[in-house]
Amino acid sequence: MIEMGLQIIPTMPVQEVIDTIRVAEELGYQYCVVADEGFMPDVYVTLGIAAQHTNQIKLGPVTNGYTRHPAVTASAAATLNEVSGGRALVNLVAGGSMVLRPMAIPRDAPLAVMQETIDILHRLWSGDNVSYEGRRYRLASAQTTLGPQEIAIWLSVRGPKLLELSGRQAGGVVLMAKSDLGPAIKIMEQGSIETGNRPKRIYLDRIAYTPEMLAEASKLYTYAVMDSPARMLRGMGLTDAQIENIQTAVRSGGPAAAAEFITPEMIKSYQIAGTPEECSATLQAMIIEHQLDIFLLNIISPGLEANTHLMREVADIVRSAN
């Protein structure tokens, strides 16, 4: 049976993030990850407070090795694990434009950043004294005072080398783009063959089942076109001309300017969309075909009442797909 979780982009006040997590737990969601977006509410302060207002839901940041040194992440996650009673996880990304561009941080050597971040987290969570010499990071007799930790590491990745890394070492891999699930899992499994590791397969989606949600999806779709590798774009059925039109419109006028180039068929290739019944049937088929373990709902905008309604209806869709 597929489990349920949330990814929250904290565009709302801190208290609303905490209330959203509390309501999610009441609705039966088992996981919540909150984006570490740099200029939004601090992820660890927020998650620490959320841990004090929840009992079972697993909590973690969606963070990266560019804006936070892995040793800092190791200590912060260990602290969260202690205050939550062992409910912490860490979801690593290879750096996103929303975070790195305002800080003028180049996204250099993402594979090295990700690999070394994983290595440092595991070594520090062993509780041992750690010296480390990597391409990006160094440690000199570093040791956490919080003792050994068992904390799952998820990776949200798209590129082939990072997908292979997730297969080798991750506790979970967060996958995006419905049409890319098969190709991404095939690449990931090449890494799994090397180590025998089988990460949880986690599918992140917003789900669109009303006209308003489809309109919103057309704006979000443009970000996918800007950030996705060629494999994903081809899997989405886009031609070179369509890709160029969307990317040019986004650069000149933002996502709203590109909306005219987005069709309902494009959206349905990228995410789950249609009536609630169609969405449930689509998810059920995906669970069976791709052996998905967790469905992650993307919460991107403020409004506790609206998000509570969304979480309740999506929970019904997911449960009916099991």
Q: Approximately what portion of the residues adopt beta-strand conformation?
A: 15-25%
Distance between the termini: 6 Å
Q: Could you describe the largest sheet, including whether it forms a barrel?
A: 8 strands, parallel, barrel
Helix tally equals 14
List the strand order in the largest sheet. Answer: 1-2-3-4-7-8-9-10
What is the CATH superfamily classification of the largest domain? Answer: Luciferase-like domain
| Classification by helices and strands | alpha/beta
Q: Which CATH class of the largest domain is shown?
A: Alpha Beta
Spatial extent as radius of gyration: 19 Å
Strand count: 10
Return residue spans where pLDDT drops below 50 for at least 5 consecutive residues.
Answer: none
Q: Can you tell me the CATH architecture of the largest domain?
A: Alpha-Beta Barrel
Integer tally of domains: 2
Arithmetic mean of pLDDT: 92
What is the fold named in CATH at topology level of the largest domain? TIM Barrel
Oligomeric state of the chains in view: single chain
Cα shape: globular
Outline of the structure:
This protein is of the alpha/beta class. The protein has 14 helices and 10 strands. The longest helix has 18 residues, at 304-321.
Keywords:
single chain, 322 residues, TIM Barrel, two-stranded antiparallel ribbon, 14 helices, 10 strands, 51% helix, globular
Question: How would the blueprint of this fold be written?
Answer:
Layout: E1 3-8, H1 14-26, E2 31-35, H2 43-52, E3 58-63, H3 70-83, E4 89-93, H4 97-100, H5 110-125, E5 130-133, E6 138-142, E7 152-156, H6 160-169, E8 172-175, H7 181-195, E9 200-205, H8 211-227, H9 230-235, H10 240-253, H11 255-258, H12 264-270, H13 276-290, E10 294-299, H14 304-321
Parallel strand pairs: 1-2, 1-10, 2-3, 3-4, 4-7, 7-8, 8-9, 9-10
Antiparallel strand pairs: 5-6
